[in-house]
Amino acid sequence: MAEKGTQTLEMARKQVDLVAKYFDVDPGILERLKSTKRELTVHFPVKMDDGSVRVFTGYRVQHNDTRGPFKGGIRYHPEVDLDEVRALAMWMTWKSAVVNIPFGGAKGGVQCNPKELSQGELERLTRRFTWEISIAIGPEVDIPAPDVYTNPQVMAWIMDTYSTFKGYAVPGVVTGKPLELGGSVGRYEATGKGVVISTLKACEYLNIPIEGARVVIQGCGNVGSIAAQYFDKAGAKVIAISDSKGGLYNEKGLDIRAALDCKKRYACLLQEEVSGTEVITNKELLELDCDILVPAALEGVITEENAPRIKAKILVEGANGPTTPEADEILAEKGIFVVPDILANAGGVVVSYFEWVQNLQELLWSEEEVATRLENILKRSFDEVVAIHEEKKVTMRMAAYILGVGRVLKAHLLRGIYP
Question: N or C, which end of the chain has less CB nearby within 10 Å?
Fold first, then answer.
């Protein structure tokens, strides 16, 4: 468990090292970007339904706030650890910079298996964790959001607990809240929708028609399920989709509505519920012959070992850090066009920014306004990354890092070092 998190952090730091040669700055400044600014580890008790008390471990890591308040999700997962959260916080910094919104990067997590917890236990865990990290978060300091196995209800509990702590309602302390508590229309589907917007831009750039394009999606959570629906609407064929237990495959195209309805009803994908399908493992899914591959689950799934067998024309990273640097080199040699995570899945942080702005200014934007602003920002960001990709003859990931890290470096140099 700890080894996986350490590998993820090493990958995040290596990505900064790879882009360092494009900047003429003091090595100490670059080293600063590879380190977090502040880390909080908490061990807290929760009373379980049977009356027993269980101690959980949680984290809130703040990587960089040079360009604005810390921003990043909170995940509930049995394998989350400090190194993983450090890496995810770093990626949030670059992601915010690539789409040029005034946030830095942070991330949080609690070691737990939410599938084994009741609703009451989840609420008590969330409220106690919020209380423990309340010294580090706030609408002008650090704004959490949903991530793996957290959702609008969890954000509502965080908002309520923090507001109780402050003595008045503070909707801007989190994003991804229910609409009734100041959430933004379009936030729930923003990350998955953004993945599809980035894919459509990639298809346009490579002259690959989206109509009939074969799409494979690893992950059936918020990002994967929403992306599947938008790909279906765009005329693509989703031929495979999976969750943590495995997936379903149909070379002629899945009935996406039936697959997602099955996942919603049974918390898994069942062959007998989706006609014409074959059962497939997550390993097999990644290596299917397809036009577009979307890893939208966890990090580190495309490695040096399986990268030679990836057959997609376009790989769009719905998850954070699904591809290792070693795999990146292999994919580049194979001519696979990779839309990196810090660009491809930035839709969530963009609409989180919209939600935060609406909360601070007590405004309500329409769904059309949110959708238009999101699309404009993601399309502009894609074009900016492509321009660097062409000018410097580098991969799309390297181009995105040149753009994102470059913006953070410029902000550091403008602010200077105190005293």
Answer: C
